[in-house]
Amino acid sequence: LVASENASPRSxxxxxxxxxxxxxxxxxxETGAAAIFKMGAAGTSKTKVFAGDPLADPSGIxxxxxxxxxxxxxxxxxxxxxxxxxxxxxAATVIVTSRDEAKRKK
Length: 106
Description:
Layout lengths: L11 E6 L2 E9 L5 E7 L5 E6 L6 E6 L5 E9 L3 E8 L2 E7 H8 L1
Antiparallel strand pairs: 1-2, 2-3, 3-4, 5-6, 6-7, 7-8
C-alpha cells in the first residue's frame, strides 16, 4: 500500500469506520519516532494517530469499536520494560506494565 511507504509498518488491525475498512498500523514517522497511523484499505493516504513517548517499539495493536487504540510495546518504559499503551483522543497512557504482571505472580 503506497501510503505505508517509509513508515516501516510492523503490526496492524483492520476495523470498520463509517462503513469503510480502515487499517491501523504501527511504524515510524518522518522523524524516526515510533508512531501509530491509520489509512483507508485502498492505502492511498495515511494519518498519524500518535507518535513519540511512551512508544518506543510498538509491536502489537488493537482498536476498539469506539476508536480507542491499544498498543503492546516491549520497550515503552525505562530499562526496556514492556507496557500496554492506551491511545485515546490524541493522548497516550500506559495502562499495564510488565512490572505490574510480575507483582501479580508473586
